[in-house]
Hints:
Chain A is mostly helical. Chain A is 64% helix and 2% strand.
Amino acid sequence: MTVLQKKADNPIAHLSADDIEEIGRRLDEIRAEVIEARGASDAAYIRKVINVQRKLELSSRAVLLLSLFPPAWLIGTAGLSVAKILENMEIGHNVMHGQWDWMRDQKIHSTTWEWDHASPSDQWKHSHNELHHTYTNVVGKDNDLGYGIMRVDEDQRWYPLYLAQPLWNFINAMFFEYGIAAYDLELGKNLASKESRRDPEFKARAKQVFKKIRGQMTKDYVVHPLLSGPSALHTLAANFTANIVRNVWAHSVIMCGHFPEGVETFERKSIDGETRGEWYLRQMLGSANISGGRAMHIMTGNLSYQIEHHLFPDLPSNRYQEIAPKVRAIFDEYGLKYTTGPLPKQVGSAWAKVVRLSLPNDFAKKLTSRLGVRRLALSAG
Amino acid sequence: MTTFVPDQSPRATPRGRLRERVWQLAAAATHPRDPADYLDMFRPLRSGADLRARVVDVRPETADAVTVVLRPGGAWRGHQPGQYVRIGIEVDGVRLWRSYSLTSAPENGLLTITAKAVPDGVVSAHLAQELRPGQLVHLDQAVGDFVLPDPAPTKVLFVTGGSGITPVMGMLRAGLDRLKDVVLVHSEACADDVIFGSELRRFAEDGRLRLVEQHTDTHGRLDVAALAELVPDLAERETWACGPAGLLDALEEQWADPELLHTERFRTALAEPGDGGTVRFTAAGVTLEADGATPILEAGEDAGVLMPSGCRMGICFSCVLPLREGSVRDLRSGEVTTAAPGDGVLIQTCISAAAGSCDIDL
Ligand SMILES: Cc1cc2nc3c(=O)[nH]c(=O)nc-3n(C[C@H](O)[C@H](O)[C@H](O)COP(=O)(O)OP(=O)(O)OC[C@H]3O[C@@H](n4cnc5c(N)ncnc54)[C@H](O)[C@@H]3O)c2cc1C
Ligand code: FES
């Protein structure tokens, strides 16, 4: 873990190799307990969430048929936003992680689920499950870390382009689902050269994305508005708003997972030959939780338990809350920092980092000291 | 079996075309979900839905057997007496599929199955203890060729043991009037344990069949010699047999005219297992270690892979997948099948275990 070790306040300096493996063993034990215990009540939980989500979506869309009336617009838009958030977060994200595959229900299975989102499930699963979860917070490997367009760590070289990163981040938040689709497609890399643009595999995947987006757009911006008759434009606006709300919410939750101060990033070299214990340790230090009530946990898809999720991405999300105290006890016992805080604080902290890193390292300090030097020179002259 | 007169394609009628349009519109409105997923919340048993059934009643048949009465959804296509059905049941949140012979006559709109508890049996215990009226179960269409021909032969013999009475009961309830001369030899530990005992004895009292009960606690095991003594005109009777593997094996070995013997097995006879190995499901991206006694089907399911399956005993071929590379052992014969890279040898995962490492295309 070279990137940590060269830091002045290396957060794992006090751990021996045996400690790290013991942490891994203890976490494996927690995992085994949940796998042993999961059963009918877990299955009932996810079915209930799906049922509530679908009924909420149906009724919100029904109310929006009358969206010409402002109260109907407000209620319908709010309901649809919540339904979309539930679908993406507590249902889609977690089903696609394979958290519910053990139920052997082909309707709630990682290989069959398609979500209400611009990015096709297959492509998202590859970039999210295989890349992000394997290379969590490894600079240059984990695209979730700034989606390849942002500077997220002091170790990353600064370019003037990064000055605009607060703006990128804001736009990315608004249209997050398209940002994700673009980066699942590795659009930046693939558009760069003629060769990769022409690659048949890339072309096939791009086609798949366009098809998915077309379906999504047709639903939200053609079919439902047309069904609303005289309320067509209002329904269109409602659906657009719900998509933006969902996007901004998802973006905020995900920023809170890996961006707030206190979360560590890693060097590409540092994960070569990583043991299971070290992998766990990287997940522990590379993630942050959000504190809050039950509604908060469900609306974030239990990514408010980002630490637990990163340790055990395929355990049913409804179990994270229950294991969180045991996980935290391990952090405490081994003197590791369990990063958590309420949503506004964590979002603020993540944004502060985005703004700070848009400037060169120590920009503020250098600026003041340079000004100070000039003042000195002036007074001497 | 219900015969299908190939209907006019639904597209061809104006109504069919309209329906299709409406469905397309609904699909555009629910993208990327199937509109059926929304309808299922309200009408899970409608005819267009995946086949399901509602439990109407669960009643004890003997001390260790229960009968489950089911109302199948609109997609049910009927069955022929003697056939079985696969039922998908959630036990501890996990959907498990098992086959059960249909014991009801086809006509009356309800289906019954009768399950005898097997020691440590997960599904049979669940049916007896947990299943409640009102619950939904998953269902496949009826299958199986353990059925009487039409017209039925004049002289028929049924040989059954234990829960093996179930498919025969289906035939008797549906078509005893069609059968002129029926002998049923049924073997069971004691009189009280005979599933459908009172109904069978009533058939006998009414002179509709000749019933021979062989109670193994007192009479010893039923073998072919005993059978020949009990049924002197054995050779003239076309025979349907269902019961313990030992009985069926003996009948198959010693039957004079194999053409006249039909058997139904609830379990497969297995060879000595070999060493296991590493199984890779290449498309699912799952790798696991399996021992030499575990069917690849079960190993995959345990790891959360969505495996195709049917009878789970090597007869229906629903579970067939290509073996891309490596070796598997047939759990029945012990025979090893090996695929060179690039091959796609089709193997039945329900009766194949890993023999060394193997890559399965799924
Ligand atoms: C075509 C077909 C028709 C069938 N019809 C009927 C029926 O009408 N009524 C009925 O009760 N069963 C029937 N069965 C058997 C049934 O499908 C299940 O295998 C049985 O109920 C046991 O399932 P389980 O989940 O309880 O046992 P499992 O949990 O699968 O098995 C537990 C243990 O019991 C053993 N075992 C599995 N099956 C049997 C068995 N049949 N007898 C003894 N030991 C067994 C297993 O090897 C294991 O050690 C039929 C099977 C087939 C293939
Ligand atoms: S499941 Fe029927 S042959 Fe394998």
